[in-house]
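Fold this complex.
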Amino acid sequence: MVFASLEFLSVFLPAFLLLYALTPARAKNTLLLLSSWLFYGWWSPLFLLLFIALTALAWAGGLLVERAGPGRRGMLVAFIVLNLGVLAWFKYANIVVETFNAALAHAGAMPMEWQRIALPIGLSFTVLQAISYLVDVHRGKFPAERRPIDFATYLAMFGHLVAGPIIRYDWVRQRLAHRAVHASEFATGARRFMIGMAMKVLVADTLSPVVEHVFSAAHPSLADAWLGCLAYTLQLFFDFAGYSAMAIGIGAMLGFRFPENFDRPYLARNLAEFWRRWHISLSSWLRDYLYVPLGGSRKGTRRTVLNLMLTMAIGGLWHGADSWNFLYWGLAQGIGLSVVHLCRARGLGLPAPLAHAATMLFVMLGWTLFRAPDFAVACDMLAGQFGAHGVALGAALSNMLRPPVVLAYLLGIAWVLAPALVGARRHAGNGGAVLATLAPIAGFLLSLALVSSRGTVPFLYFQF
Amino acid sequence: MATARTNRRLRGLLRWTTAGVLVASLGAAFVASLPNMPGALAHADASLLDDAAARRALTKTLVTTPLTDTLARYQREASWLLLGDLGAEVHRGEGDWLFLDEELRVHPGRAANARDRAATVADIARALAARRMALLVVVVPDKSRIESQHLGRLRRPPELEGRVREWTAMIDAAKVPVLDLAPVLASATPAPFLKTDTHWTEHGSQLAAQAVAERLRRMQVLDATPVPSVVASRKTVSEWGDLVRLAGIDGLPSSLKPAPDTGWQSTVETRSESTDLFGNTALPSIVLIGSSFSRRANFLPFLQLAAQSLVADFAMDGGDFSGAARRYFAGPAFADNPPRAIVWEVPERALESPIAEAERQWMRQPFAGRGR
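Structure:
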């Protein structure tokens, strides 16, 4: 089930909200847990068992790590390895075997037989949340959760279960134990949910066919390649940030406060700033549980560069299950961040507009690598972006640029740039308040009509 | 002071409006889906646990409501009236000429798909020949190829130009009779395709039927004793085609829709007692399998008229490349009444389209069903 689907909007969410309102406070977590498992199980009942097992493992792991004496560290490492082992098996077994088979084929040997493994939805997010919980218990940040239902509710909460944001236990534990739903929080949540849905449906889903087409076309021209790359740049942001906004909105409607996951990333003026603004819950996770423990930037320039490369390469790998492109993309980000670090250390910089343009160019070329199904397609697409396959707009893409698609491009660009353009005029009196209320409502109602018209829409970030 | 109070009130009201709209929208959608619940629950059993397709079907049953249908219809209509957009599936060319997106799409892996389909046709033709059955493959060109002068700002991708020629060359190389209808239809006047429909007019259909009959005659597979057909009557009709329905604007008042197609509709009578498919008489010796082109604009009656022979209809709406073939070769009609010749009509747009898993399985063993 995805948020921007009819089954979620017309059955699951209203039924859940109704029951949630009627359920006494002490049973709300149980209802939320059971509903979240139903939400997950509707996709894949078998993977729900795996999910429950991982939950039990993390819960028991927290208690054991807390109680263990001198062997705490070893126990923590064991539980982390267990979690990562599950993730590695489901996420990377296919690509490792396929690469191995390709090498065998190259050497003229028979490939080994292999039945592809399906990746359970949301596994990557669940594992990161479980690891952060175990590490934080080990660090003594908070006591291990005694109540299995509360802990399971934290991991399973359908708002962020399948696609983040990556929530840390510390952020929600007080509200898991006790929360009240305030009308104003519900209204704020409703607004965030509406905005998120409009972002996803009006922009991301409308641009999706353009992305599909360009990234599957052979030898795209310069115009095709850049229009496709721009479409993906917008699609990825509006899909993911839209989903995060819906998750934050649902959280608020239930009495939780989830942190922001995006902060105008496409206005960043260098790559380090971009990563502070993009998928913040993942960036901060990588910083706190990987980069800093590796030594961060405290051990000299060489070590800093190495840590950046390692962190971003692992971050890239975390995204990818079907292609080594994610690793290459992560390494490219590591190189970019290292360059930013070295320039900063030497006091070098570009004028703001140029810095913004250079950052966006790097980010967009990176997205090409990120989106392409394999390295050959990425190279073909990048060659198109540099004009190697001609310049003119192709006929197939020209036909796809229908008025709603052009409007989605314009809306997406305006939405991304608006904070920079509007800036100081944010608090624009009652007129602005009316607009700020009516625009999400109109966007939501239009999205609802579009979802009805298009049928169920997929969510891009599930694949990660 | 009073202004500040008014502002606070306004902002409070706006907040409540947002929450109210969300609750009202979700509530209305939920209430609309309630009548579907008993039906959906009646189909809910343990098999759902490992059957994703069944879960999807159940969900679809649950959420398809008059409210969602109405919302979808309003969205399509507003998009047409405000933006002149007909959705992702239909494009507007010049004037009231509409075109199916599928015809203008360049599919990934298209060459391999076309090659695999040609290989399947060759395998089937060989297997049929071994059983003394002839196969004639008939390719119906895209409307956007034949009516290209009406494309307006739409552009037909150059990658599609050679697809019929290349595919029929593969079929030809396998020594399977193949007929490309493009030359026949390209020179036709009046227009061989409808403006608001993806299919042909009766004129186009009749020209195609005559070309197919002529080819069957040359293949010497027609019955020695002719079965006469005549055009008994003909009336003028004016109606909107399937592309208007596909665009979801068929509910609009006439003045707000593209102009309807105007043409004639014939009644063709075949004077034979052996047309009763469900009686004791044997099936005709010519069988037609194909897509909706075979089922529109009197194609089959025109084929019987031109061939002066009976033709059994096993075509299938939405059958694309292989839908009708899969059903026919697996069915009792093929096993019990093998024909002398099979006419396999294929739309050009289906030659390179992605091959679904079910079709891929069938291609491995096309005669694996009952008709073996």
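Residues 113 and 355 of chain B are 7 Å apart (CA to CA).
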